[in-house]
Amino acid sequence: MQRIVIVGGGAGGLALATKLGNRLGKKGLAEITLVDAARTHVWKPLLHQLAAGTFDTHAEEIEYLAQARWNHFKFRLGNLVGVDRQLKTVQLASSHDEAGREITPAQELAYDTLVIAVGSQTNDFGTPGAAQHSIKLDSPQAAKHFNDRLINACIRAQTVPRSEGSGRLTVAIVGGGATGVELAAELHAAARVLGNYGFDHINPEKDLQIVLVEAAPRLLAQLPERLSASALRELRKLAIDVHTNERVVEVTEDSLKMASGKVLASSITVWAAGIKAADFLHNLGSGPGGMEPLETTRLNQLVVNGNLQCTRDASIYAFGDCAACQQPDGSWVPPRAQAAYQQAMYLTRALPRLHAGQAVAPFVFTDQGSLVSLSEYSSVGSLMGSLTKGSFFIEGQLAKLMYWALHKQHQLALGGFRKTALITLSEMIDRTHRPRIKLH
């Protein structure tokens, strides 16, 4: 029986484990094992809402053990620390609780096929002070930490006199990509709601100052310019202070210092500029006798061929943000959620055929456009497909509906139609009796 080990329970890894479990594990054709350092999964595009406290994380989380039981795969808790390519085993570090007590010991898992889908992490480019004085919004734990600091700062702000011309609480966001833009709008919406739950002196226009800093000439630099202009227009309506063409050179406990010499005050700093793959991937797979590690890029991404196999080991696959996959036209698959999902669906079909020694056409990414949520205020996006030549710009309620549909697509991939319908009904009921924002 084939032993397939998938490391990384993000959107792509969990979808792949679920699909392979139902396709191969259920029939006894393969043993599927998913490995992750956390016990639950949260869809990464929702992290900005978790940070702002505008959705219930417990209702959204998927427990890996339950998902494994329902979909015929196994789950193992642990951090990947090494791969023995000769013995075909992965090494997992021991895990511990908050008091330092061991939960699981260090362990090894044997594999015939290894799939690495560990995603990416925020890249602070070695900026002085960024590691010590900013929160990197790349995990549910980091989002929860930010939310705790935000609520505590709001409570503290009620007792601090506001200085002339500035807010009592300033949140600075470094990075004008999708995460930074979405977080800025979500925080503004959250501040409006806080006033209804005891924070009567928190006014998003007067008492909360949101600053967004981007090194590029415009926000959302990787997306169409019209989408960028629309997002900037909406943010300015919300009195969010946007600084483009400003590169942060130092982060302190209470400020940001720019290459231009400008200094911006900050009560809480979020770093959302740039991504890279995890550092441990750089030397992964090296072994005795001078065995080379798996090939990586300067951003630690594993280099893969068209079938998503690592260039130095055909039994190891990688996809999503942690992989570098070149397209037939010479471009590289972008580190976006839709790319990881498409690659997961590709491997669901391709792995059984590759195991059987059959030829499989290489993966080709299909850009379906981009969507950016501006909280309850608006959404903007561009759609691409066979019905349009180039991109089709959308905004407002239609874009918000499409953004919601992306989330539902993720739920469908993991739970099927019946479960997704029940989740949607539960969400509608919850809105009638739960606070619109997390307050603890």
Keyword list:
31% helix, FAD/NAD(P)-binding domain, 440 residues, five-stranded parallel sheet, disordered C terminus
What is the CATH superfamily label of the largest domain?
A: FAD/NAD(P)-binding domain
Q: Please report the distance between the alpha carbons of the first and last residues.
A: 48 Å
Compute the average pLDDT: 84
Tally of helical segments? 10
Share in helix: 25-40%
Cα gyration radius (Å)? 22 Å
Low-pLDDT parts are 385-390, 432-440
Number of strands: 28
Biggest beta sheet summary: 6 strands, mixed
Could you say which overall geometry the principal axes of the C-alpha atoms support?
A: globular
- Share in β-strands: 25-35%
Give the strand order, joined by hyphens, for the main sheet.
5-2-1-11-24-23
CATH class of the largest domain: Alpha Beta
**CATH fold-level topology of the largest domain:** FAD/NAD(P)-binding domain
CATH architecture of the largest domain: 3-Layer(bba) Sandwich
Overview of this protein structure:
The protein has 440 residues and is α/β, with parallel strands linked by helices. It folds into 3 domains: 2-120 and 277-355, 3-Layer(bba) Sandwich (FAD/NAD(P)-binding domain), CATH 3.50.50.60; 130-273, 3-Layer(bba) Sandwich (FAD/NAD(P)-binding domain); 369-430, no CATH class. Helix content is 31%, strand content 25%. The protein has helices at residues 11-25, 47-52, 57-60, 64-70, 130-133, 140-157, 178-194, 225-237, 337-355, 397-430; strands at 2-7, 30-36, 40-41, 62-63, 74-77, 80-84, 89-92, 95-96, 102-104, 107-110, 113-116, 121-122, 135-136, 169-174, 208-213, 241-243, 248-251, 255-258, 263-265, 268-271, 275-276, 302-304, 309-310, 313-318, 323-325, 369-374, 378-384, 391-395. Helix 1 packs parallel to helix 9. The longest helix has 34 residues, at 397-430. The relative contact order is 0.14.
